[in-house]
Amino acid sequence: MKERMKKLCWILLFTLVVVNGFAVQRFPKPEFETAYLQPQTHQPPPRAELLAVTDVVVLFLALAVTTWLVLKRRSRMGVFFMSLASLAYFGFYRQGCVCSIGAIQNVTLALFDHSFFIPLTVIAFFILPLIFTLFFGRTFCAGVCPFGALQDLVAFRPVKLGSRLNAVLGMIPYVYLGLAVLYAATGTDFIICRYDPFVGIFRFGASFGMFIFTGTLLLSGIFIARPYCRFLCPYGVLLNRTSRFSRKHLTITPAACIQCRLCENSCPYDAIDIPVTGKNPMDKQRRMRNLIFIILLVPVLVGIGGWTGARLHETLAGVNPKVRLASLVMHPESYAGMAEPFEITAFRSAGKPVAQLYAEASSVLGQFYTGGWILGGFLGLVFGLVIAGRMLARYNPDYVPNKGNCFSCGRCVDYCPVKATTNPPS
Amino acid sequence: MKQRIIIGIALLLLLVVIGFMVWDFFLSRPEGAANPYAYDLSELKKSDTALNRYEEALQFTPGLEEIHGIAVDPAGRIFVAGKNGVKVFDDSGKLLRKFKFDGYADCITLGLFGNILLGMGDHVEIYSAEGKLLEKWKPANSESVITSIAATGLFVFVADAGAKVVYRYDHSGKLFNRIGEKDPENRIPGFIIPSPYFDVCIGKKGELWVANTGRHELEQFSPDGRLVTSWGVASMAIEGFAGCCNPSHFAILADGSFVTAEKGIERVKIYSPGGVLKCVVATPEQFEEGTKGLDLAVDPKGRLLVLDPVRNQVRIFVEKLKKK
User: Which ipTM did the prediction report?
Assistant: First the structure.
């Protein structure tokens, strides 16, 4: 019976293929011959289903191999070559799409708009790196992300920025993530993709403005190692927070730290926490005072942030096409003396009632008002936690990678003179 | 100190990147920006002036509303059909006679004994030279839209854009066969007629030519409906036929060359009997933008008559050398 069903399926499949083979165009497409050259689109063609599955398999294997290289082999060279391979496959071959960073928006939109179809591949690209990070740290950043690999290639002279500057600049990815989620949730735009700095390189084509944008970022990357990963990447925020819970994170030393300080300056990303020993902890009373201050401060910051975000909702919604169109229709004086904007022309020719447009724009504004509260509150919370992180020093006897900020690249490993066999881990 | 300068420069570059993103997303949308999707054919309408070997010698207004059809008899008299009437002019544009009827004539040709055949929407009407209604043929199809008629001594060929077929009648209105229907066995691709422009003409040897506009081709058929030959190329360039469906009209010169008229990019050109571009008669600049339905006729002197429904004129073009 099973065999018969199998045969039936094959026959059905074959019939479908053959029937399609006889299909003819209902209307032949004119093949115009002119001197005009069709511009090459920068958008890669959709992947065949089999290739999409292959991509997920390759992603899983790349994560697994990188994790093995980082945690078992502790091989910086291995991670480096792995990142080059990922750059070639995920960057140049797959032309940077779909990527885990951009997948944030697809997932968000799918959560807020049930008519939006999200392929399983995209979900896999979003989830897999997070799962690996949860167990093994940011090995995705080390050897799989093509963005990181590309930036690593230009980090010729990395400089230390200092903890304060790192903390201030480290707020930017939270803002970017918040805005990306807000604009994706309201169906306004996919800003991560819009300002993807490396996709132009992967696809050998981008607008002049984007090339300048990418060039500037890479130029800064000569001195500030991985500037996008550290101070822009919204996915890095999720990886950072997830990685803090990782059980098997990369360690600088395979055994007990001998405090030789050789690794102190090895990290180009300022991601090594220096020891906070028993000699210099804050006194108990001061720590308690700080804690009470933080407990009071964070809700205030969340409230202020939320209120500010809600006040800015009209500005934030200004880029939404519906809101922008409604604004233009409502204020024709804004383009007085100029040609009528093409959005207005298109709207008028569509014959849609103005009242309907206003109602839709009003609904979007409402979404932005709520979103503004959430975004502002989220940023207030993050700001509060950053302050808390700086005020509440934690006991730390050894040189250890900061689990949140460490990309698990393995550079520091090469600096450690301790061998695993000489001193078993405590 | 040096380290601080480096950090300062690197930070500045990073801030430039972030500043660009903020500016581009929130601030760089000027009101009243030009439409990036505008349908602009102006560049495509330019052509090589060296190819232009004709010039406009004469033009006159026929004094009819909604002119659609033009024909010339062997004596050089010009027949123009429009709303509610037909007018006849001599070769200098002087009115000779006129007659009236109710309705719109979409096309005109001359039949036996000087009779005038008019395509009137879904059917054909035949008038005597004096303007007396002689016959009114039944519509061949409930969806018929008659756009062109061509007559030989034996047959009348009627192009029906609605049914996408050419009918062969005798002069008494007896239907013989349908020509051009899709027939893969006999390698007939069928007519693709996206707009109500579907012209037929009789060649110098009495052969039937049909404009298969959707395929951007002129196709020759035998009276029994065999596809004999075809030529044409879809191209925005001057050598081909542009747009969705062209040539909208065509006529055949005494030497077998084809005169074609296009819409979209309004132009009139001459092709050799083999379908090679010979020259340009009129360029887009010589027509109002959006002009459609440039019906064509050739008079015994070899002059090209272009019916311009937008300017409501009969425009006569002659070869520059001949004029001198």
Answer: 0.80
